[in-house]
Amino acid sequence: MKSSRLILPGVIGLSLLPLLLAACQSRPVEIAALVVPTMAFQAQAPALSPTPSPTPSPSQTPLPSHTPSVTPTPSPSPIPVGGGVNPLLLDFTPRPTLPPNALLPTAALEWRPPPLPVPVSIHPEDHYWFARPIPSDRRNYDLEYYPYGNDILIPEYAPYRVHHGLDYPNDPGTPVLAAGSGEVIWAGPLPSPRDGFNYYGNTVIIRHDWQWRGEDVYTLYAHTLELFVKVGDRVATGQLLAGVGDSGLVTGPHLHFEVRVGDNNYNATRNPSLWLAPYEGWGTLAGRFVDRLGEPIGNAELVVTPLDRGSSARVYRQRTYMERSLVPDEAWNENFVIGDIPAGTYRVELFMTTAEDGLRRRFTNTVRVLPGRTNYLLVQADFIYVPTPTPTPSPTPAVITATTGISGTTTLTETIDLTPTP
Question: Cα(17)–Cα(11) distance, rounded to whole angstroms?
Fold first, then answer.
C-alpha cells in the first residue's frame, strides 16, 4: 500500500477479541498409492523458481545494497510536548457487542532473554533487521494463539480473519518503539477505503531507510492510545512512537505490528517473525509444506514438540498459511513459521486430512534449531492438494454454536502414520 493508495480491508487485534476457527475443505481428487514422504532439514534457503519444485536447491542471494547499519537505541525520553492524539476525541465506529463469556484472560508475562542487537544475518538469507517494537521489560513477544497467516487457534471461538501481522498485548500506555530507522509516512486514524471503518485505530507507518532486494520496506503500528510523531518526522531505531492502546476495532489494549515489502499495502505483508531479531540463544523455524506437485498446502496442522527440554516445555501449535494470497518471504518461500523458539531438538509433525478418502495423514521428522538464525524445513506430501476458497468472514463476531479442536480426530475414520524410516 503506497501512501496514495490504502487497501486495508480490516485488521482485528486480538489480545482479548473472540474469534472463530476457520476450516478448509478440499474437493475429491484422484490419489495415487501412498508413498512415504521425505522431510529434509536444509542448511540454506531454497531458491525461488517460477516453476514449483519439490526439491528446492540452496542458494545464496547477495544482501541488498542498502544494508541497514546498527543504530544506537536512544535513552528513554519524556513524552514530547504536542503531537499527541487523544483517541477519545476521534469519531470511531462503535465496537461490536460481545457475548458475556467472550473475554479471554490476559496472558501472564513470561521471562525471555534479551533480543540480539540488529541487524542480524548469521545465515546469508536472514534479514533480522528490526528491533522489537515493545521494550524488553514488557511483553515483547506476540500472541501465540493468533500468529501470522492463521485464524484464531482457540477451538471455542469461530473463525474471523486470517492475521496479517503480530499482536502484542500490553497495558495501555506501554511504549511503542520504532523497529527501525526511517520516515513517518502516516500518523493518525486509518479508515479502510473499502468501507470507511477505522479497523486500525491510531496508526503509525514508517518507510525505512533501506530496501530489501530493491523494494521499500514499511512497518505499521496500530491500535495505539496516542501518537508522539507526525508525518515527515525522521525516527531512529527504538524511538518512542506512541503508547499501546485499544483504538480501532479491538476489545483490549495491544499493539498490532506489520511488515510490508514493496507496497504500503495490506496485501503486501510479510511474516514479521522473519524480520524481528531473535532472542539470545533462540532461533526461528521456517518451512514449506507442499503436495506432490510442489504446490503449498494450506491450513495443515503443525505441532512442534521439544525433545531435550523436559516434559513441561511448551509445545508449539500453528497451521500452515491459511490463504494463498499471503506473500511468502522472498528468501525462504515459506508457508509456516514458528518464531521465538529456544535452540534445541524438536519433533515437527504436520497433519492433513484429504477429502478423497477422509484419512488423516501425519508427516513427521526431527530437526535441530540453531540460535540466532532461521532454520528451514521442507516437507513434501504424497497427495495433490486442491484448496477450497474460504468464505469471507463478517466484521461482527458470530454466536458460537459448535467447534472442532485443531488437533481433534474424532470425525476421522483412520490415521495413517507416514513417518519416514530412519
Answer: 12
